[in-house]
Design brief:
Layout: H1 14-30, E1 38-44, E2 50-56, E3 59-61, E4 66-72, H2 76-83, E5 86-93, E6 98-109, H3 112-121, H4 124-128, E7 162-176, E8 183-189, E9 194-199
């Protein structure tokens, strides 16, 4: 029997493989229990050192080749993105043994109307982290010094610290781990369309 017969159909087809990855990202943006709901975001700091942390995918738009995450406007990652818009995202889907690597250009959304619309749709528990009185990453002597403001009657306390980042995908790479041999593909953005090719895993 050919080794190819041991793979799922989409793994051996560039277009089907990309569609599958898109579907996984779309699902992950809507499900907090999905492996790909949390991605590792890599940026470059002011000393040109790589920095990595976890972000939550809030939306994936396959038509515009973009995904969205939220962050505190006082966070170091936002300052890093302001200085260098080139970012990388990494996630692993354990069920499908699929690693997805994304390279892109980050855009910080500054339109108040868009920010308020997104803020209004968020759960109160999701807005709470933006009410912390000090900037994320600030050193404190004890955890008792980490204080959160009250929500406020209008629910807008913390909104001033709320930021939205869109990642415009420049390339997407998939790696399927398989006992018959790993399969790796690289898709590059060509006029707003991801064009794929096989690469050595």
């Amino acid at each position: 029997m050919s080794k190819k017969n041991t793979y799922d159909d989409h793994i051996l087809d560039l277009k089907k493989g990309l569609d599958f990855a898109f579907g996984r990202l779309e699902k992950a943006a809507k499900s907090r229990d999905d492996d790909l709901h949390l991605l590792v975001l890599a940026t470059i700091d002011s000393q040109f050192n790589p920095q990595a942390r976890t972000v939550v995918i809030r939306e994936f738009d396959k038509d515009n080749l973009s995904l969205r995450f939220h962050t505190d406007s006082r966070s170091t990652k936002l300052f890093e993105i302001s200085s260098n818009k080139n970012i990388s995202l990494l996630g692993y889907d354990s069920k499908n043994k699929l690693q997805i690597r994304i390279s892109g250009e980050a855009e910080i959304i500054k339109k108040d109307k868009i920010l308020k619309e997104i803020w209004g749709k968020m759960y109160p528990m999701s807005r709470e982290c933006y009410r912390v009185t000090e900037a994320p990453g600030k050193e404190v002597n004890t955890i008792d010094e980490v204080i959160f403001d009250e929500e406020g009657k209008d629910g807008n306390n913390g909104f001033k610290n709320f930021s939205v980042v869109n990642c415009h995908i420049t390339s997407l790479e998939t790696l399927y781990l398989h006992s018959a041999g790993h399969i790796r593909c690289l898709y590059k953005n060509n006029n707003k369309e991801l064009v794929g090719k096989w690469i050595v895993p």
